[in-house]
Every structure is written in structure tokens, then in C-alpha cells.
Amino acid sequence: MLSSVVIPVINIDGVDNILLEVRGNKLKHQPGEISFPGGKMEAHERPIDTAVREFCEELMCGEDSIDIISRLNQYIAPNKGIIYTFLGRVKDIDLGISNDEVERLLPVPISFFKTEQPTVIMNKVSFEPADDFPFEEMRIPKDYFDFKVDNEVIFYKYENEIIWGITAYIIRDFVSKINL
């Protein structure tokens, strides 16, 4: 699956913020979690088109509310496929929006992410081969996959909110590359 998100930067009272969303509680996937505006690419779309379309749909605004500044990195998210990211400067927008997809908006000062290190948890992930895995045919022992690998999960605590997973990874990567 291919998706695109915008890292939307908005200036509030002279302070640059990353504008995140608290996802609607009735959504099927990841209700109540914090994420960037974005979503699945349609077959006919370019990544930038998806990013802008999803931003406008979720934040209930027109395309004139966001200026895309740059395409950033691509990420591979567990069970989500490839995610394209774009940096955007938000212009005139209603910060009080709420709809089925977005419970509310959450502006977080970029300076918070520059000064606060995320909490890092190392999970162990194991591989469990299928019952019909052809060990004998492949000439490998049945304990070949008896190992665990580290899987880093990071999260930021901002006020009473938890920003974690791919959203936190993208933020950490983004703020490590900017000078403010």
C-alpha cells in the first residue's frame, strides 16, 4: 500500500508548531491516536496529490490553506506499506475543527521535539514459520528461526498526549535535520 502524509507547520503567536491530528474515536483503524494528515494513495494520484487531498479533506479546508515546501523521506511502516512525506506551511485554517476523521487538532511546538528526547522501548520480535514451511526441502533445521530481533518503539509525551509509532519516527527524523 502507498500513502502520503503532510508534516504541516503552522506559526501560532510567533512559534512554529507541527500540526497533528487526534484521530476520531469512531474510526476503524487507530481511533484516538495522534497522526499527521494523510492517507492512502488512489491509483491515479501522485504522492503529493494524495498529501494535499488528504490534508484538505481531514482539515476541512481548501488547497490554498497549505503550501507544500518540499518532499521529504519515504518510510516503510509495519502493515502500512510505504509512506511518502511532505513538508507544508499551513496558512489560514480553523484550529477548532472536528469531524468523523479528526476529533481535534493538536499543535505542538517544534522546539518541544528539539529539546525533548523520545522514550525508547525495545520490543523483541520473533519469527514463527508456517506449519507447512518446507524445512526439509530447504535443508535447514527446524530451529533455524528460533531467534528474536529488537524492534524499537518510540514515543513522546506532550502534555497529556502520547505521540508514538511511525508518527514519532517521522517527527524525530524531521527535527534532527532542521536548525531552529
From TrEMBL:
<dbReference type="GO" id="GO:0046872">
    <property type="term" value="F:metal ion binding"/>
</dbReference>
<protein>
    <submittedName>
        <fullName>CoA pyrophosphatase</fullName>
    </submittedName>
</protein>
<feature type="domain" description="Nudix hydrolase">
    <location>
        <begin position="1"/>
        <end position="137"/>
    </location>
</feature>
<keyword id="KW-0460">Magnesium</keyword>
<keyword id="KW-0378">Hydrolase</keyword>
<dbReference type="GO" id="GO:0010945">
    <property type="term" value="F:coenzyme A diphosphatase activity"/>
</dbReference>
<dbReference type="InterPro" id="IPR000086">
    <property type="entry name" value="NUDIX_hydrolase_dom"/>
</dbReference>
<dbReference type="Pfam" id="PF00293">
    <property type="entry name" value="NUDIX"/>
</dbReference>
<keyword id="KW-0464">Manganese</keyword>
<dbReference type="InterPro" id="IPR045121">
    <property type="entry name" value="CoAse"/>
</dbReference>
<keyword id="KW-0479">Metal-binding</keyword>
<dbReference type="InterPro" id="IPR015797">
    <property type="entry name" value="NUDIX_hydrolase-like_dom_sf"/>
</dbReference>
